[in-house]
């Protein structure tokens, strides 16, 4: 049985009702503009890597700028700012949904689309990315359903993290996301960026721009 389908003995919105409450983090400002009229698609971007000098964070930054140039309003977050314990059903039953997970659920809910950089660990997605998604799916309703999503990856190896990207795309599709077909996986990524963080390979740069453009375009179509 999937985590999203696991029987709940409480409402995640009433965290702590069955036991000690999770510590409350400062409430983050909403990424939704005050104006009720916002023609730009709102995109939430994050990487499944916690490393400061992550190659996937570098690639994500490139795609984020391309998405903004294509007309998207992108909020770039760092999962280091949302520390979560390893998912455990008993922990959830006792304490409810952790505050960082609540904040992430709210951010996912407030945005139309997701842009995710998926590093590859032993041919799989990272524990950080999987654990983050697992906790978020414990909310009701599922915050991922109906979102548009794009996945990119980078790796020092010759495949560019493509296996991780495929698994991330499969997981997001299973959760109800509309995953765009465009892909960008950058091999030998330790040599792919210049000192300013730009991609030096023209083909990789165009692939990043295609992903960004398709994400913005698809989201706009679904918003019409």
Describe the structure.
The longest helix has 22 residues, at 202-223. α1 (55-69) links the parallel β1 and β2 (73-76). Strands 1, 2, 3, 4, 5 and 6 form a six-stranded parallel beta sheet that branches. The chain starts with 41 loop residues before the first strand and ends with a helix. The chain has a single domain (38-223), classed as Flavodoxin domain (Rossmann fold, 3-Layer(aba) Sandwich), CATH 3.40.50.360. With 224 residues, the chain is an alpha/beta fold. The protein is built from six helices and six strands. α1 packs across α6 (202-223). The radius of gyration is 17 Å and the shape is globular.
Output the CATH topology.
Rossmann fold
First and last CA, distance = 35 Å
* Molecular shape: globular
Helix content: 25-40%
Low-confidence spans: pLDDT under 50, at least 5 residues? Answer: 7-20, 25-36
Strand content: 5-15%
Q: What gyration radius follows from the Cα positions, in whole Å?
A: 17 Å
How many domain regions? 1
The CATH architecture assignment turns out to be: 3-Layer(aba) Sandwich
Query: Mind describing the biggest β-sheet?
Result: 6 strands, parallel
CATH top-level class: Alpha Beta
Summarize model confidence as the mean pLDDT. 88
The tally of helices reads: 6
Q: Assign the structural class, choosing from mainly alpha, mainly beta, alpha/beta, alpha+beta, or little secondary structure.
A: alpha/beta
In CATH, what is the homologous superfamily? Flavodoxin domain
Count of strand segments: 6
């Amino acid at each position: 049985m999937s985590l999203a389908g696991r029987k709940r003995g409480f409402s995640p919105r009433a965290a702590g009702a069955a036991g000690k409450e999770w510590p409350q983090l400062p409430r983050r400002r909403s990424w939704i503009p005050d104006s009720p009229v916002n023609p730009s698609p709102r995109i939430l971007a994050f990487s499944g890597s916690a490393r400061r000098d992550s190659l996937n964070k570098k690639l994500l930054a490139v795609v984020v700028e391309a998405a903004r140039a294509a007309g998207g309003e992108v909020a770039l977050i760092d999962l280091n700012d949302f520390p979560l314990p390893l998912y455990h059903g008993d922990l959830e039953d006792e304490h409810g949904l952790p505050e960082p997970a609540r904040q992430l659920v709210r951010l996912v809910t407030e945005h139309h689309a997701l842009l995710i950089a998926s590093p590859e660990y032993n041919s799989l997605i990272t524990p950080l990315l999987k654990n983050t998604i697992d906790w978020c799916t414990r909310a009701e309703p599922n915050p991922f359903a109906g979102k548009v999503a794009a996945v990119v990856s980078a790796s020092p190896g010759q495949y560019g993290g493509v296996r991780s990207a495929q698994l991330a795309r499969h997981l997001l599709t299973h959760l109800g996301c509309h995953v765009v077909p465009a892909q960008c996986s950058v091999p030998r990524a330790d040599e792919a960026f210049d000192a300013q963080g730009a991609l030096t390979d023209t083909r990789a740069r165009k692939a990043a721009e295609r992903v960004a453009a398709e994400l913005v375009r698809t989201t706009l179509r679904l918003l019409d």
